[in-house]
């Protein structure tokens, strides 16, 4: 270690370091234009000149390449140093009068006009580019010539074969003399394209060292070996110079890791269809024809346009956008994908609505579609509001060609309306709603694993084991199982987890380790002794915020006993030393000023626990994500802000108290309410994973709606499979079936429910830890189309019954009509019942099979055979089933005339009335939920306007409720076919097991507590809490006052701020704690 | 008045806006340094009293987001 | 009015005699003209003290919170709405109450009378829609409709919304009343104008808390202004503290205020405290279609959360 004097202060550096490096470490700024951390110093620009006193005389040396030695005295800030620098800057300004960085320097040194003759150069001959090129292992450019003729160029000034067009020279050029654009212009022998960012769909470039996207987990950069120069030339390694912890190892090799597992779940996902091959859409040629995925990026705040809606060709705001549906779906001619991709209708509507919301002007959005398929929960409502409230235009037409309009960037489209008129329209931008497909790599993987695929290259599964592949022990979920949206993928992944759980249940908890517990020090009543640790985060914080300054500032704050700054506070060794310091300095409160508590609070809390402190005696000041990273051009303001944030954190932490996380046993028994196919599946899965299960059914037998179904969409016999399942349940000694039973009361909460079951007047109380609601739904009994007046007019379920009864009359009929959307998708019941299109088409095909000459008509609004159900639709058309569209304003009429059934409708193509004499009219009637209001009240869950249960999260929590310990599956959630009901039954079981398997639940410390002395019993908290945590105390001195169940409390604080009396406190975010932060604001610098 | 800078106190929900503010950092977006953030567990925790207290302490604006 | 009081006495007497209630809360004559005062009648014989006229503006619901007895209460339209709020907020149980509903045609604002006279009012007598007022040196007959409390003149719930007995036939409700002209006027002001308006409005406030004490909604065992841990509001007459008090009290009444006018009536400085509460009352109506105290089945909108709550205010 070498000690010397810097500006009168003693500083230390390593042998071989240069003055500039040591000065930087101590926060002393020395200007430089030619220095780069990864390159050898060259002292080209001379601006870093400093004054050196060697004991005898003073001289001027360049700080960047002057090595330090013991006892030297360096001055960076003297008048003569400034004079010298000023002259250099003046000379540079004369050479490059228009270069921003030089102009800025000149401004700093008070130079308005150089005294020397001005030139028009923009190169200051710093040599960064040539040194960088050399570093890359290339030497494609060098400084040539001497004296005034010196310049940067290639040998003989011809395009160099050595040059790889890597752009490293441009990345270091301080003046813009070399830029990527110039390289791209002049380079003819090499490809100079940017490295396309995968996340931004190629709409912009990325670096070879990159984090795939901001939210990536782990959020660690990766080096792209295919483009990294080091892997081409063996040079570069510039990144290693910047990594403060030597984390980069270019010699790492791919490893083969062998794992011994009991089961495999495949979730490789899909790839968006690439429409480049559709030359009639001009996607590959025209920048304003983009895919929906690209459009998502344009709408995204983190995308290439930062969420500003512009088109890519000229960055103009589009006035008219069109979406084309079914690109790469439902199409055999161009892409071989005859399936429906299920999700595109919904995402196109979403994009159109968001685009309209983003645009601050009246944006015209048009969606060209074949059938609008909004068959998910609340999707139809969204479709209606997009059309009626947002004014999105929907046009039923498949467009053939997109033609660029010559001389503009616009696009012309010719299409035929439903009425048969040909129209021509111009759009600014066209979005192709591309479908989902399985990638070739995934198909290859399936081949290696030996699992069967469908004709659409999705995994072949049975409706009764929807997530099991053809190979035992291998399961699938997500889009590889078939095109599907997020909620369905989430259901399936939970179902796959349950399937594995059932298989591997005996191995549960065989590989867990016990954790060592450090006894907690009691700090209650002690004066706060706060330790403040300020993180440099390499240069992430220290490069902007003056960390030593913040650290010293913190030291002077009240109750602060210890301060320090760390290079990386989160590193293992820092964590250990932090725990030691807490112990040795007797600290009882800790502030870490670093990144964000959202990612790092648990880590630092762990350190507190290891030091024997309660983890709630901690607070973070976010001086990276919300400070240094967002104010990088304002170091002084960022430092001030960091001080404020530290002061606020210190004043809050002083008031923090140790909080308890109570532990509560989870009753290991489950209850499933509803003995339909999803409820039975849930019960079977729960028992299969080792849990006693009560299965409650209000009817006299198990089976629910499945008892009424003939076949699945895949043609499997429902009754056969149902019998197997029912038998399984009845044989299972872990499942207690309660038939003819209803719930008459539920007490308790997660882990500890006490439910009263009532059966024929007998009451029984059952204790259970979790509940699954699977109460199902029923088929609507229509009150239109003369239903009930003639036995030839029936519902789909009644037709199924006739198939099951092998009704011989069916074969004899000449004509059959199916009417779709009976009771669905209309104002009083706005949702789509999801299953009816497939069901009717299935039944139509069954009739055709019996009697190929039968005339069959399906009267529909939109055919919604989503996913691979589309094949059935195609098959039906091929079999001669006639599909006729009708609109909700003009429903078909069913008349009974002299023993005949006459169906009247209007042909949508010809616009002419049509009359069909039918021997059979099947009404595809809606699925109607049972509106279980009492059950909802019992379990403190809610129903939506349609009477369906409201799940925790529409996308991410479809099989559970916001209320802990209560789960959901089957038709009670939303209409769905058998395979989806079964998957959700397994999913609900899976979600339940995650809770049951913990055996205990821990409450958070950050929960609300009441002070009964000042509670006014007004009941606002009881009413306002979405989690039913507050209730009125029964009995005792505080009877009638509110109390809060800390197990149910999520710590949101809604009750706290709603409490007028101030009787509720939110521990960890209490009033005095938040006030202390607010009061600390006022001292702002 | 020309160099007057407002002091803004923002109360951000830890689940969304606070996370978004973090993400703004991750994305290296830049914004003026006039903001001081108080993290709250949910905007449901926001009390009008906090807004009034902040204004009283000299804040020129209070921003609640969640 | 005479018919009213006879009926009130009759009902009250019977309730007490039959032991249906332990007491009746009503009005008796005060020591000053136009200042009837609330009274608790516990003996059937004492019902003779009860009075009823247009000087019964005090909201009797205020006397119910936390009582354990069986109570008969004489209640105007606004009183009944506050009784409803009390029931919803667990301040009293419905089965404790026998509500003697009194259809109301508005209460007199004594300030509107006294400002017409130089000297102190000695006597005021109500007759057929007029009030004969005597001061030390003058006498005048005034029209009652000119003297109504501001909230009464725009009242659209004059009849009791909940009652067990009625002291008179229901009256016709006022229709086509522009309830929020004053709020709209303030809403239309610029930020600066608003600032001045509220500054002037609150300048006379002496922090006596009469408005709070008169308000049936302010029943907390410890009011936030009286707390010191944390100190929500400073205790001084500093305009900032006064403003904080009024703002927060108004928020506490949001979605619960029935515009009964008790606060204004109680204010010794004549501050129009309703300027705050009415804005929030209007917002509750505009945003949630809500009028406070109309049903014992529903809680105020700010006590509940619904996924489809309006959120147009989020920008």
Keywords:
heterotrimer, B: 66 residues, alpha/beta, flat, C: 315 residues, five-stranded mixed sheet, three-stranded antiparallel sheet, 8 strands
> Which protein chains make the most extensive interface, counting residues with beta carbons within 8 Å of the other chain's beta carbons?
A-B, 46 and 35 residues
What would the average pLDDT of chain C be, to the nearest integer?
92
Q: What is the level-2 CATH architecture name of the domain at 271-437 in chain A?
A: 3-Layer(bba) Sandwich
Q: Helix coverage percent of residues of chain C? A: 25-40%
Q: Distance N terminus to C terminus of chain C?
A: 52 Å
Helix content of chain A: 25-40%
State the strand order across the main sheet of chain C. 2-1-3-4-8
Query: C-alpha Rg of chain C, in Å?
Result: 20 Å
CATH class of the domain at 271-437 in chain A: Alpha Beta
Number of helices of chain A: 29
Mean pLDDT of chain A: 94
| Major sheet summary line of chain A | 5 strands, mixed
Number of separate strands of chain C: 8
Overview of the molecule:
The complex is a heterotrimer of chains A (1085), B (66) and C (315). Chain A is α/β, with parallel strands linked by helices and 1085 residues long. Among the domains of chain A are: 76 residues, Ubiquitin-like (UB roll) (Roll), CATH 3.10.20; 87 residues, no CATH class; 167 residues, FAD/NAD(P)-binding domain, CATH 3.50.50.60; 123 residues, Rossmann fold (3-Layer(aba) Sandwich); 150 residues, FAD/NAD(P)-binding domain (3-Layer(bba) Sandwich); 79 residues, Alpha-Beta Plaits. In chain A, the strands form 16 sheets. A 5-stranded mixed beta sheet of chain A has the order 2-1-5-3-4, sandwiched between helices. In chain A, strands 12-19-13-14-15 form a 5-stranded parallel beta sheet. A 5-stranded parallel beta sheet of chain A has the order 29-28-27-33-44. In chain A, helix 10 packs across helix 11. The two termini of chain A are 38 Å apart. The model of chain A has no long low-confidence stretch (mean pLDDT 94). By secondary structure, chain B is of the alpha/beta class. A 3-stranded parallel beta sheet of chain B has the order 2-1-3, sandwiched between helices. Chain B contains 2 helices and 3 strands. Chain B has one domain. With 315 residues, chain C is α/β, with parallel strands linked by helices. Chain C has 3 domains: 132 residues, no CATH class; 38 residues, no CATH class; 127 residues, no CATH class. The chains are: A alpha/beta (1085), B alpha/beta (66), C alpha/beta (315).
